[in-house]
């Protein structure tokens, strides 16, 4: 899974021209379904079933092993996503790639559930990341391909809602199959496969002109040029710090509930995840909508970005000072409010500090390195902190410091209030 930010499209064609996107009837609900299925698998598999399987294989080394598997697979996902996107660009089609990725999820999930060593789990989950990134890269490109500029806001909302809804479904399904995770893997694979068939059957597409691949030298030059801009560089640093802090904790949620939290009698860690995830998702949806609206109304992006990052830091301190179940509930709510508002307003802020309007899509791609890179590093950092400190309190505090630094990083930005 690679958390990404939607970027503005460039080079839009005039309405009615061959290159202009033509909306598909019912496309927005299909986009919502497609993204919901994807995030359900990412959250349910990577956030719960994979952690349970690794714990079954090696209970004593579960933290280090989970960090290793999550980190290696994140590297694989980050490399494979642009490769899969480039292949679908060159073919001029998205639906075949969506369908192929979705259908391949079933045998790969079957393989993942049948292996019994950490090495084979790593290989199988890397294959899972490969097929899901084929799916993700293609479905992410549907909005700029097929949605007119006037409807991009609605389409982005449909895509964005896939994360909280999919997270909730993933947590509930994962908890339901926590005792039979091999069956759970197949259920998630079937959800993605069925959604891929539904999407490609109902959302018909016209072949787009193939896009030539961008040379590696040009990609590296673009990265350097974008970060050479003062305001964009600070926005990049702030995003990277906050995402690192967020995913260092989020990836280990199940183990935190098992080994750090004093759960009420009769409540398992898996059931606790199924409670916390919907709570967090609702808070995230509320703060995303409210934060975006308020930042527009008052025209103060830096204020809301800094405040929401600081709120995320406050959230992380709560479970550091208390291991109680109410503390985890409070953390889930406050963290959802902070992270949801941050992602909504910071994305708007970034679009205002892009170095050149004509390179907007390219530079938003550079920003996605600040999303994907920390997700690679986070499992390694988190497992190292937990292993050295002997618990999760230090992890919460380090993540809180990273969030504070992320809040402070927006202060040097000059061109946005």
From TrEMBL:
* PROSITE patterns, A to Z: MFS (PS50850)
Compartments reported by the entry: Cell membrane
Q: Does the keyword Membrane apply?
A: yes
InterPro entries linked to this entry: MFS, MFS_dom, MFS_trans_sf, Tet-R_TetA/multi-R_MdtG-like
Membrane topology recorded in Swiss-Prot or TrEMBL: Multi-pass membrane protein
A single cellular component GO annotation: plasma membrane
Query: Which segments constitute the Major facilitator superfamily (MFS) profile domain?
Result: 28-417
Question: What Gene Ontology molecular-function terms does this entry list?
Answer: transmembrane transporter activity
UniProt entry tagged with the keyword Transmembrane helix = yes
Q: Identify this protein by name.
A: MFS family permease
């Amino acid at each position: 899974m690679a958390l990404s930010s939607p970027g503005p499209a460039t080079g839009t064609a005039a309405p009615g021209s061959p290159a202009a996107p033509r909306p598909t009837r019912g496309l927005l609900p299909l986009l919502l379904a497609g993204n919901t299925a994807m995030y359900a698998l990412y959250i349910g598999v990577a956030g719960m079933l994979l952690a349970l399987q690794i714990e079954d294989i090696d209970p004593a080394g579960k933290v280090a092993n989970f960090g290793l598997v999550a980190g290696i697979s994140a590297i694989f996902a980050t490399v494979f996503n642009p490769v899969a996107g480039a292949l679908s660009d060159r073919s001029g089609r998205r639906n075949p790639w969506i369908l192929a990725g979705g259908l391949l999820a079933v045998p790969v999930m079957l393989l993942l559930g049948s292996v019994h060593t950490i090495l084979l789990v790593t290989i199988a989950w890397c294959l899972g990341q490969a097929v899901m990134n084929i799916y993700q890269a293609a479905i992410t490109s549907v909005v700029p391909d097929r949605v007119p500029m006037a409807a991009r806001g609605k389409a982005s909302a449909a895509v964005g809602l896939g994360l909280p809804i999919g997270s909730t479904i993933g947590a509930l399904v994962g908890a339901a199959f926590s005792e039979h995770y091999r069956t759970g893997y197949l259920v998630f694979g079937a959800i993605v496969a069925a959604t891929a068939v539904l999407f490609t059957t109902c959302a018909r597409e016209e072949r787009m002109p193939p896009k030539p691949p961008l040379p590696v030298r040009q990609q590296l030059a673009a990265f350097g040029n974008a970060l050479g801009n003062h305001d964009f560089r600070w926005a990049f640093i702030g995003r990277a710090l906050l995402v690192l802090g967020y995913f260092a904790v989020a990836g280990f949620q199940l183990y935190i509930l098992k080994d750090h939290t004093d759960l009420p009698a009769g409540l398992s860690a898996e059931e606790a995840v199924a409670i916390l995830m919907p709570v967090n998702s609702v808070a995230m949806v509320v703060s995303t909508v409210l934060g975006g609206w308020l930042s527009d109304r008052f025209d103060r992006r830096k204020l809301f970005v800094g405040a929401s990052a600081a709120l995320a830091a406050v959230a992380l301190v709560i479970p550091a000072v208390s291991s109680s179940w109410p503390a985890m509930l409070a953390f889930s709510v406050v963290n959802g409010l902070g992270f949801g508002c941050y992602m909504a307003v910071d994305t708007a802020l970034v679009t205002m500090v892009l170095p050149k309007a004509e390179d907007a899509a390219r530079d938003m791609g550079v920003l996605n390195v600040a999303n994907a890179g920390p997700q690679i590093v986070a499992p390694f950092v988190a497992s190292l902190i937990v292993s050295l400190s002997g618990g999760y309190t230090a992890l919460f505090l380090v993540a809180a410091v990273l969030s504070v630094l992320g809040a402070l990083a927006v202060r040097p930005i000059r061109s946005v209030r």
